[in-house]
Design goal:
about 300 residues, alpha+beta, Thrombin, subunit H, Pdz3 Domain, 2 domains, six-stranded antiparallel β-sheet, 5 helices, about 40% strand, elongated, PDZ, hydrolase
């Protein structure tokens, strides 16, 4: 924590230090007007670049940003990634200093943190709490990869999605979001923000592989396991197929049960996401499945997930 001259009152010292952190971090936090009514927050990540929570943007054009000095300027959406809930805005003619970021992997359950947001007309806002849970890399339900799982101890106030989350030393660990877990505030780690922002600024989208299937986990019968000498007890039932998608083109049918991808057991959706990295796009993928009680195999070419949220 930042040092200060002690007045002999530890609580007052703590209070003063927290206020200083909010004031300093708040110089890198903006209000983002990309939806009706309540503005969200954003963080100055690079010179002329603001990052915010993608789910708070309800339009592609006409986005404005209120700066710490009270000016409101136009912003251009460079791109957004729903998988990690990161959006990048470009500001023309604005050259404010970016925040000082830190490594969210250092956070542990119980660590004190400060969420610093900005709304209309009231300057910076702060919320003080602790980390509720922290762990290693985590894949979101939309398929995005976060470099660390960091859950806050409660939900977020309106307008705090996109806010900076600072540790007790004043380093910004990433940005807050309510869009990844229902009823809980989550942190998008600074490492994730940097990686995704780089790709969005470069090409306006984040590339991910695509099979074009909807699945649900099912138990495999003991008869199937014995008959096919399977090492896993679960598979993925194909319950939907994208028209013209890689799986349909390869002959996969509704009701098939996926059991292997590239020779490795396919037990849950994480096993599918593992083979859908950007480097696998355009590459062949061997699939083993159960159809009519028999094992069958086919090969498909991994496609690129349709970019519904790319405007470049």
């Amino acid at each position: 924590m930042e040092t200060s001259t002690s007045n002999g009152n530890p609580l007052q010292d703590l209070s003063d230090n927290l206020a200083r952190i909010v004031e300093r971090v708040g110089q890198g936090v903006v209000a983002v007007h990309g939806r009706h009514r309540v503005a969200s927050s954003g963080v100055i990540w690079r010179h002329g670049v603001v990052v915010t929570a993608a789910h708070t943007l309800r339009r592609m054009e006409g986005i404005e940003v209120t700066l710490p000095d009270g000016r409101t300027v136009a912003a251009v959406l460079a791109g957004r990634d729903t998988g990690t809930d990161v959006a990048v805005l470009k500001l023309d003619g604005v050259d404010l200093d970016p925040v000082e970021s830190g490594d969210a992997r250092s956070l542990k359950a119980g660590h004190f943190v400060l969420a610093v947001a900005r709304g209309d007309g009231f300057g910076a806002s702060a919320d003080f709490g602790v980390i509720g849970n922290a762990g290693g890399p985590w894949r979101t339900w939309r398929g995005g990869q976060l470099d660390a799982f960091v859950r806050l101890d409660g939900g977020l106030h309106p307008g705090f999605s996109g806010a900076a989350l600072a540790d007790a030393g004043g380093q910004v660990m990433g940005i807050c979001t309510s869009g990844l877990v229902r009823g809980a505030g989550m942190l998008i780690p600074a490492m994730t923000v940097e990686r995704v922002a780089e790709e969005l600024l470069d090409k306006g989208r984040v590339s991910r592989g695509y099979l074009g299937v909807g699945t649900q986990q099912v138990d495999l019968s003991e008869a199937w396991i014995d008959k096919m000498n399977l090492s896993a007890k679960h598979g993925l039932l194909v319950n939907s197929l994208a028209r013209g998608g890689p799986a349909e083109q390869a002959g996969v049918l509704l009701g098939d049960v996926l059991i292997e991808l590239d020779g490795k057991p396919c037990c849950d959706i994480d096993d599918v996401h593992t083979v859908l990295g950007a480097t696998n796009i355009g590459q062949p993928l061997k699939i083993a499945l159960i159809r009519g009680g028999e094992r069958t195999e086919c090969s498909l070419t991994v496609g690129e997930r349709p970019q519904r949220d790319s405007w470049r």
